[in-house]
Automatic annotation (TrEMBL), chains A, B:
It comes from Ceratobasidium theobromae. Its cofactor is Zn(2+). Its main location: secreted. Residues 1-32 form the signal peptide. It is an enzyme of class 3 (hydrolase). This is Adenosine deaminase. GO terms for biological process: adenosine catabolic process; inosine biosynthetic process; purine ribonucleoside monophosphate biosynthetic process. It comes from the Eukaryota. Its EC number is 3.5.4.4. The keyword Zinc applies. The lineage of its organism: Eukaryota, Fungi, Dikarya, Basidiomycota, Agaricomycotina. Belongs to the metallo-dependent hydrolases superfamily. Adenosine and AMP deaminases family. ADGF subfamily. It catalyses: adenosine + H2O + H(+) = inosine + NH4(+). Residues 237-510 form the Adenosine deaminase domain.
Length: 594, 594
């Protein structure tokens, strides 16, 4: 029997079968759709000419791109901006060939920690460094300043003590160091303790940081070995994220340990002062003019006073922060650089793993602090921490609704800025935080990595102007995506969801400022170097360039970070004016160099 | 100066500022949206109660899920099916805990080649093996049968010769083996040639396969070392994809070499006969009842006759294929299993790297062959090969429009089934193949990995019933995604784009049948095991289960593969009836085992 015996004779043109089709296959509620759409290829009854086809294609592409976040910015581009686009695209293409495709082990958007040194040497990166980046809207206090800087600060204070859960030796991975500033009275008890590097070390007993460093044995590298241990404890390395901790659970365990290590250092009054100062200065050096810092206020997260004898009150912590911000502003003004910095504010950040009752307590704390520091503090309320094991928002729904009502009664404006969608989940309890963030009226959402899976929610976020604080390098290092070129960001951008690029935990991810994030996301769209091809993408409509994201797109992302900041109207207008001024200078710089 | 000096006094409620807002920030065409959407939290002027909030939440989730591909199937589920869902969800949760989260090095949806052995031992996988899977719509001839099976076939034919570009030794990676069946006259010239494993080997000179195997030196593992070399040449290993060839360019080079190695073996008349037979039998064993094979017909892709003296004509290749299909059907009938197999057909597959003129020639060949084999052959036309370096569809637009017109003139129905969107590109020339596939009236699209980035196109694909042949394991091993849990498939499913799961190149990816694909995609949605939590997802509306994808979803995916096959109406109706019958038996089996 041949195939012809099995398959009925060739069937007549499809149209005749259409009625039969809908009868035959309407089984179980799903209808087989096989009618094709040849009508697309027709003008009346005639097939399209190639030119008509190209026109139709250009229209379709333009229709889809109209959804994008940068459409208007590109449409309204000045002649000078268009020239800058050309120059930068040319540079980008050149370095794609000379840097990324010249080495078979490299490609655009490749894993960040393998790419970082190469990126830093490109002219494109040096250009992005100069770009005014607007606001940093998502970053956690303890993980912003460079790890080596934090270590340097720590070594200035002999009151800092360290302990470990086991002794250090070369035959096992080093334990996480726990730091704590002790009062003189406390410190006196530990002056003769065995060091963590000694076989006699009593687990979890304190030793002064300088004693431990000076006594670090030479077989473990001596004092420099100590520094390496601390810095490794404060950061995630390529080996950590790409090899050793390659599941979500494992990398979050490592990540949590970096916070445990940083915590006892950052939350010490004299260090905190210098740390916040450096935090602001380092962002400003990267072209960031405004920062919203996520800060935790739970009772176990106190800041210890200079003499090590007590916890600062939350009000004292806020006063300290405010004074540092004012100090940085004053210094910049003296240098004639006051336009480089429009301010910094604090988002009240709880953790999502706490109990319902504890959350109610923190929500009340937040209201009280907001009344005391109406402009600096609690410009938003958030819950941080890994979403999977933590409670979803719906768990706290009643408390959050009550908070909203109470804030309204007191006339306090504390928008929600929830972590949501920092997960690979699809439609489960974790991913569903994105529904609650929306329904609870969040003004922004942290991460929103899984928002790309939600067609209706993306539309709602767009229509309601809910910005997503996307943290590409953070998401990569915490194993949500292999690298920048497989991140979901382009989906959000193509759907017109407002996005503010953020660094999340720059210290942990070895990712100072926002320049690396801007560089990496730019390479998410891969453009292969096609040779000797004469067609172009959308011949009748292409305005600027054949690729979808250009330097104006990056500018629009930067601008959006200010638009979606919590600055009040006057301050925001001023910040945007300053940003536009710096942007113009940046464009001038590009055109002059081209 | 304190922060209060810088920040203006606390601003009045937002509504008053709304007019001012739109004036202030309408700069450069983009408007700062910071109005929030507190109205969501209100019923008239009162804030929602928790219950009202939960109802609104359930409505929102239901509204979004209505877009999904499986909504109707789940809504119309029988009581028996709902019971099966419960049983399978219970099994899935149990094995998530006992298999995937019990070992810190494992997680659901983890890299396939690291997960494969573990998957194969689960009860859930054994269940999926039994599931009727409908059609396999995307698989390339040379890469379907297991590599060790192909090697076994090759060793049966002493006429097969092998050559390499350099000699083999333990100090360098082994070169790719090139195979060719030689005629007796040709073979006679090479009987005394040095072997590729000899230092005297003359690069690219032929040696009989059995001589090379028998003479494989013991330091390279002897004959078993030969087998290992050939199988490694025909497959991509975990080491290859996750470590050694970790860029798109490198992994495609390796991938292309597997085809080069397979080519000379598969395209030999007596092997091809047995190979196609095994291809069908192995799919049938995995519950696949219908296959559409992509087959290349270019002049350089001939099939060599049994005596090694000539190329078969394309008609002869088709006759051979038809006879094998008929033979398998006859055997199954004898065994009383004729319902397990509804047929196989061939998609004409060109490669996209050829010249415009060569493409015109192949399009004409395709029309001619279709006239000769109207039901078996050319049930679709495609262009295979890596999209990045190959030509985009727009390059061939004129030829494709002419082909469409000519097919219509001759009354031939040859739908386009283009590879498109098998890329990480975003809006560039490569990714734009998705626009052209749509505008050229494609009935299906191969891969569509980047379709997730196209909100408008996803809607068009859905409305026009254009199915995407998604190949999750292929995409992972070719470095479009780290692993199943970061694949874009959930985005297509949540947008209601029709999807048919496919294996692409099961031999290369060590992925027989479709069971592993079904298993892995099922774990794309991660469900963490949340303990002691009392909330549920959508309390007032949840029908079946709290997670978004269940066994009925998998069934719907299987069913869709038949709905979107190229079977004509009568054959399709029959195939769907048979599938529903097997599905019912499958559900019965689950319920009986529960």
């Amino acid at each position: 029997m041949g195939a012809k015996d099995f398959f009925p004779a060739y069937s007549p043109p499809f149209s005749r079968w259409l009625v039969l089709l809908s009868v035959l296959f309407y089984v179980q509620g799903s209808c087989a759709v096989v009618i094709g759409h040849d009508s697309l290829l027709r003008r009346n009854s005639t097939l399209l000419t190639t030119q008509e086809y190209r026109d139709r294609r250009a229209d379709l592409i333009a229709e889809e791109r109209a959804l994008r976040f940068d459409t208007q910015r590109i449409r309204n581009a000045t002649a000078k901006e268009l020239r800058a686009v050309e120059i930068v695209d040319e540079l980008r293409k050149r370095e794609q060939a000379s840097v990324w495709y010249a080495d078979p082990n490299k490609e655009p958007g490749m894993p960040y920690l393998w790419a970082k040194d190469t990126i830093a040497q490109t002219d494109l990166f040096k250009l992005i460094k100069k770009m005014p980046k607007g606001g940093l809207l998502h970053a956690h206090l303890e993980a912003i300043c460079d790890a080596s800087y934090l270590l340097k600060l720590a070594l200035d204070y002999p009151t800092i003590h360290v302990r470990t859960a086991s002794s250090l030796n070369s035959s096992a991975p080093f334990p996480t160091p726990i730091f704590l500033p002790l009062s003189q009275a406390q410190a006196n008890q530990y002056t003769n303790n065995s060091l963590p590097t000694s076989p006699e070390y009593q687990p979890n007993s304190w030793a002064a940081i300088n004693r431990v460093r000076d006594g670090f044995p030479s077989e473990l590298g001596g004092p420099l070995g100590f520094d390496k241990w601390i810095i490794n404890s404060l950061t995630i390395s390529a080996e950590d994220t790409y090899t050793q901790y390659n599941t979500t659970a494992k990398i979050w365990a490592k990540f949590t340990n970096t916070f445990i290590a940083a915590f006892g250092l950052v939350r010490y009054e004299p260090i905190l002062q210098r740390y916040i100062d450096q935090l602001l200065v380092s962002q400003i050096e990267d072209g960031i003019s405004y920062v919203e810092i996520r800060l935790g206020f739970s009772s176990t997260r106190g800041v210890i006073s200079a003499d090590g004898t007590r916890n600062l009150t939350n009000s004292q912590v806020m006063d300290l922060t405010q004074n540092v911000i004012s100090g940085v502003r004053a210094r910049l003004k003296e240098e004639g650089r006051e336009d480089d910095f429009v301010g910094a504010r604090v988002i009240y950040s709880a953790t999502r793993s706490i109990s319902y009752d504890e959350m109610v307590k923190q929500l009340n704390d937040c209201l009280a602090l907001k009344e005391e520091f109406p402009e600096l503090l609690a410009v938003g309320f958030d819950m941080a921490g890994q979403e999977e094991p933590g409670h979803p928002l719906i768990f706290f729904a009643e408390a959050l609704l009550n908070f909203r009502a109470e804030a309204e009664r007191r006339g306090l404006d504390i928008p929600f800025m929830f972590h949501a969608g920092e997960t690979l989940d699809d439609g489960g309890e974790v991913d569903s935080n994105l529904y609650d963030a929306f329904l609870l009226g969040a003004q922004r959402v942290g991460h929103g990595f899984s928002l790309a899976k939600h067609p209706l929610l993306m539309q709602k976020y767009r229509e309601n102007g809910i910005a997503v604080e996307v943290c590409p390098i953070s998401n990569e290092l915490l194993r949500l995506t292999r690298s920048a070129n497989t991140h979901t960001l382009p989906i959000l951008l193509n759907n017109g969801v407002p996005v503010a690029l953020s660094s999340d935990d720059p210290a942990v991810f070895q990712n100072p400022g926002l320049s690396f994030d801007f560089y990496q996301v730019w390479f998410i769209p891969i453009e292969f170097l096609l040779q000797e091809k004469t067609y172009i993408l959308a011949p009748t409509k292409a305005i600027v360039a054949s690729d979808i994201t250009n330097i104006l797109s990056l500018g629009q992302l930067a601008r959006q970070s200010l638009e979606h900041s919590s600055l009040n109207l006057t301050a925001k207008a001023s910040a945007l004016r300053l940003w536009e001024k710096r942007w113009d200078e940046f464009i001038d710089y590009i055109v002059a160099s081209g």
